[in-house]
């Protein structure tokens, strides 16, 4: 991949991560995106995954965690939702 292509993938996944994180309303979504992108960079260094493959893997993992969190919040009574966060 060229640098231009990598930057395009990076911008795309930063937006995807941001929108995914916003589903659980974090206090600092931009920080969350930076942490996830660091995880992607770590994966590309320690595995044979391409940058795009690493982004997809991290996105899939975080998406599953977000879905579990949303199900947990749905099952909580309204007053105790803050405790579930």
List the helices and strands and how they pair.
Blueprint lengths: L2 H20 L6 H18 L4 H25 L5 H4 L1
Helix pairs in contact: 1-2, 1-3, 2-3
Characterization of the model:
The chain is mainly α and 85 residues long. Helix content is 79%, strand content 0%. It is built from 4 helices and no strands. α1 (3-22) crosses α2 (29-46), α1 (3-22) runs parallel beside α3 and α2 packs across α3. The longest helix is centred in the C-terminal third of the chain and has 25 residues, at 51-75. 12% of the residues are buried.
Give a short overview.
The protein has helices at residues 3-22, 29-46, 51-75, 81-84.
Q: Main β-sheet, in a few words?
A: none
Structural class estimated from helices and strands? mainly alpha
Low-confidence stretches: none
**Count of alpha/pi helices:** 4
Percent range of helical residues: over 70%
Kindly report the average pLDDT value: 90
Strand content: under 5%
Rg, alpha carbons: 15 Å
By DSSP, the count of extended strands is 0
The end-to-end span amounts to 39 Å
Task: Choose one word for the global shape.
Answer: elongated
Order of secondary-structure elements:
HHHH
The quaternary organization reads as single chain
């Amino acid at each position: 991949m060229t640098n231009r292509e990598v930057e395009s993938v990076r911008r795309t996944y930063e937006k995807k991560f941001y929108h995914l994180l916003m589903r659980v309303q974090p206090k600092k979504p931009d920080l969350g995106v930076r942490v996830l992108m660091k995880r992607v960079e770590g994966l590309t260094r320690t595995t044979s995954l391409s940058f795009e493959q690493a982004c997809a893997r991290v996105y899939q993992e975080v998406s599953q965690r977000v879905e579990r969190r949303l199900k947990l919040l749905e099952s909580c009574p309204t007053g105790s939702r803050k405790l579930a966060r």
